[in-house]
Amino acid sequence: MNPQFKIKISSPSKMTVGSRAQVMHGNASHTAGGLTKKDLKMVKGEIVSKKKAKGEKTNPWIKAVAKAKKELGITGFALVQGKLLTRAREIYAK
Questions:
Q1: How high is the pLDDT of residue 2?
Q2: Does the predicted TM-score (pTM) go above 0.70?
Q3: What are phi and psi of 38, to 5 degrees?
Q4: Closest CA to 80 of 53, 71, 89, 60
Q5: Most exposed of 2, 37, 43, 91 (fewest Cβ within 10 Å)?
Q6: Containing domain of residue 77, as a range?
Q7: What does residue 25 show for φ and ψ, rounded to 5 degrees?
Q8: For the CA atoms of 59, 60, 62, 64, what is the dihedral angle to 10 degrees?
Q9: How far is residue 90's CA from residue 70's CA, in Å, rounded to a whole number?
Q10: Mean pLDDT throughout 6-29?
């Protein structure tokens, strides 16, 4: 091939605004809300903002249910109803 007629290969264009999945995979720089890759994380297979994930852990109702489960000796998954619900409401009210 003659060096004068080299084909110029262009890199694929990067989108600026995209979905959370596109931002996580590196195909877009940020979401419509302005979240970048460093602002996002994977939680249980779902892409959420780090700020939202942190807020869920500090939710007082979640803490009350966790404390009630511990007091009642319940481990693993449990529906919040019956004894667990009443105990969680008592703890939450305090």
A1: 67
A2: no
A3: -70, -15
A4: 89
A5: 2
A6: 60-93
A7: -80, -10
A8: 170
A9: 14
A10: 83
> Considering only CA atoms, which of 64, 66, 71 is closest in space to residue 92?
64
For residues 29 and 36, the answer to whether their CB atoms sit within 8 Å is yes
User: Contact at 8 Å (CB) between 58 and 46?
Assistant: no
Closest-CA residue to 19 (of 5, 6, 29)? 29
Q: What are the residues whose beta carbons fall under 8 Å from the beta carbon of 28, sequence distance 6 or more? A: 14, 15, 16, 17, 18, 19, 22
Same domain (yes/no): 44, 65: no
Residue 48 confidence (pLDDT) above 70: yes
49 CB neighbour count, 10 Å cutoff: 16
Task: Give bridge partners of residue 15 from the DSSP assignment.
Answer: 28
Tally of domains in the chain:
2
Q: Say whether both 16 and 45 belong to one domain.
A: yes
